[in-house]
Amino acid sequence: MKAALASKARQALDPPVSLEIDEAIVDGEAIIVAVVAELSSSQKPCRVTGGGHRGVWVRAWDGDYRASELEVQGLLIGRGQPRFDATAAVGATREDLDGELVEEFIRACRTGSEQLARIRDREELLWRMGVLVETERVPSVAGLLALGAYPQQHLPGAGLQAVLVAGADDEPGTRARDARRFDGPIPRMLADAVEWVARSSASAIRSDRTGRVASEPSWPGEAVRELIGNALIHRDLAPWALGETALVRLDTSRLVVRNPGGLYGLTVDRLGRIGVTSARNANLVRICQHVRLPDGSRAVEALASGIPAVLHALRTAGLPAPMFDDDGLRFTVVCRQQSAVRTPPVRAGGSAAKVLAALNAGPLDVDGLVIATGLTPTNIRKRLRELRSLDLVVQHGGPGRQTTYQRTK
What confidence score (pLDDT) does residue 124 get? Predict the structure, then answer.
């Protein structure tokens, strides 16, 4: 069965898929465990080559559906560096740029770079930075989104929809307590959306390790800012994706942030690792590094520290780690409040409990955990993924370095 499974993965799919296959005993029965590694964006889509399921399929909830031509096209574009943000914004002129934002941008560029400080001509600096493009020096899509007076005049879908979901105490039939659409340039959309989340969320009563009780925001501001900023800056800017806006959905227990376009150059399991970054809209990221929010902070750092900062902010606030979902066409982050009544996250005597117990002695890699627990490498990796999602284990290391795991509490 293991040989047949490996053969199917190699011969029935294009490009072939690599499997990590192992055996395990569960409740006294022998089972086969296959871990399917996600393909890189440069290899997607993966096609079934024959039979009644020939073609490309996408997963939605608990069903499998044939991918549309637009969905396949989006995955094919993802094989290379997208350049939609560097193209001219159709119909836009230099008069569509916000003079105040442009002045602040030029000042930040010259302050932050000795080379840019040597460029005295303002129009040349804007051209060198990709705000203006082509021989006519018209605004690029990135330049308009970051520095435009009202980018949605030319890019109607490049806004942000926010919904405050109705609660149990609202009148029957109430679909939403508040619905807002944020528009304008990215720095102002981001600032307004972060303020809306803070204003629309109830305060949470939390106690620290010393027993001190305090009223705090339901959602850490730093995490909210990073997640919404990522949704606005890393969204898909292809023409077929601009009909869909980014979304913030808020209720009493969850904060959901979704943007059109899946992860570019990354997979979900690599999110949060220090030093791991990839930008779908490289031109927009470069411009936004020099764009300031109303409070003076940068719109984006581009230091691969965004998701680690989100994880740290949620952990400090005593909240669970977020759930990430990437279906190749949309990327969704779900943050949750702690449940009032929690079941034990780790079953006593189970494999996860054995892994946690082994880590009491200090950080270990997978080989060390195999020796300490007697479990198979596949079982250990699965348990480690579960424990990381529960914020009970943290991973250290990365590509080219030894990877170890350590208990967080």
Answer: 95
How many angstroms separate the CA atoms of 28 and 203, rounded? Answer: 49
The overall average pLDDT reported for the chain is: 85
CB atoms within 10 A of CB 399: 9
Q: How far apart are CA 241 and CA 259, in angstroms?
A: 10
What would the pLDDT profile of 118-156 be if each residue is shown by its tens digit? 999 999 999 999 999 999 999 999 999 999 999 999 999
Reported as a single tens digit per residue, the pLDDT across 388-409 is 877 788 888 755 567 888 887 6
**Among the listed residues 120, 118, 148, the one whose alpha carbon sits nearest the alpha carbon of residue 132:** 148
Torsion angle of the four alpha carbons 134, 76, 73, 247, in this order, in degrees rounded to the nearest 10: -80
CA distances from 37 to 9, 269, 372 (A): 11, 10, 26
- Please give the single-letter amino acid code of residue 301: E
**Would you say 260 and 238 are in contact if contact means Cβ atoms under 8 Å apart?**
no
Weakest-pLDDT range from 131-135, 169-173, 291-295, 351-355: 169-173
253-273-276-367 Cα dihedral, nearest 10 degrees: -140
Q: Rounded distance, CA 139 to CA 145, Å?
A: 9
Rounded to the nearest 10 degrees, how much is the dihedral formed by the CA atoms of 188, 190, 192, 195? -140
Question: Is the per-residue pLDDT at 180 higher than 80?
Answer: yes
**Rounded Cα gap, residues 66 and 52, in angstroms:** 12
DSSP label at residue 80 = S
Residue 63 pLDDT level (bands cut at 50, 70, 90): confident
Q: Which strand (E) or helix (H) includes residue 196?
A: helix 186-200
Cα–Cα dist 284/188, whole Å: 15
Residue type, 391: D
How far apart are the two ends of the chain, measured CA to CA in Å? Answer: 40
Q: CA-CA distance, 292 to 299, in Å (whole number)?
A: 6
Domains of the chain: 2-77 (no CATH), 160-275+299-336 (3.30.565.60), 351-407 (1.10.10.10)
